[in-house]
Amino acid sequence: MIKNIKEIVIASHNEGKVKEIKSLLKPLGFKIYSAKKFEINEPVENGKTFRENSLIKSKNASLKSGIPSIADDSGLCILSLNNDPGIYSARWAGKSKNFDLAMKKIEHKMTRNQLLNKSSRKAFFCCALSIYFPNNDFRVFEGKKYGHIQFPALGKNGFGYDPIFVPNGYRKTFGEMNFDYKERISHRAIAFRKMKKFLQTYKF
Ligand code: IMP
Fold it and tell me: Other C-beta atoms within 10 Å of 109: how many?
């Protein structure tokens, strides 16, 4: 049972993330709002880490709405590219949020630098899930999912870089997995399990 918290706003304008976070939160029984409902703006994400950017978003949404807010900052880190696109994962897709283009950029960069062997394709998805309360209390929980990059992009499920990421122990990309399955094993699910444990004992 979650005590005292009845409402939560999800500080994201990314439909893919909102869908996954809503679904993960569902069993906890909160009333869930999206940032759009409170007309919350997208703050400038000028942090240097996933953690900092996540807190910028959850703090902004919580203080503007007056209720606790959950934010996710996440991205794909490719080891041979010095963890790029990393915290700039969304920016690599440009203003039009074109992830086909972002995946092509990665493919070109890795091809040009001869980084297509299996060890150069090692990558992980990172998720920093934060919760910020109107009394300025906050927590951040991290989840990482390791795997490798694969070209060509495969699968139409999920969002963002899902079609080029194969998690360790699987042959399918996240883009080929069904929603429920990805949601159980993803970086977001790992971070979420930690947050859930915390919420079950938090007294607000
Ligand atoms: P931000 O956290 O909103 O700055 O954006 C992170 C970006 O990383 C997203 O727009 C996605 O492109 C990418 N990303 C984060 N999580 C996932 C995921 O689970 N699958 C695919 N791409 C993701």
Answer: 15
Tell me which CATH code domain 7-199 carries: 3.90.950.10
What's the 172 CA to ligand 1 centre distance in angstroms?
A: 18
Q: Is the pLDDT of residue 65 over 80?
A: yes
Q: What's the pTM?
A: 0.91
Indicate which residues carry an active-site annotation.
73
**Pick from 55, 77, 73: which is nearest to 165 by CA?**
77
- Evaluate if residue 49 carries a pLDDT over 50: yes
Give the burial string for 30-68 (b: 16+ CB within 10 Å, else e): bebbbbeebebeeeebebeebbbbbbbbbbbbbebbebb
Residue 119 C-alpha to ligand 1 middle, in angstroms?
A: 23
Place of tokens 């569902």: 26
- Residue ranges of the domains in the chain? 7-199
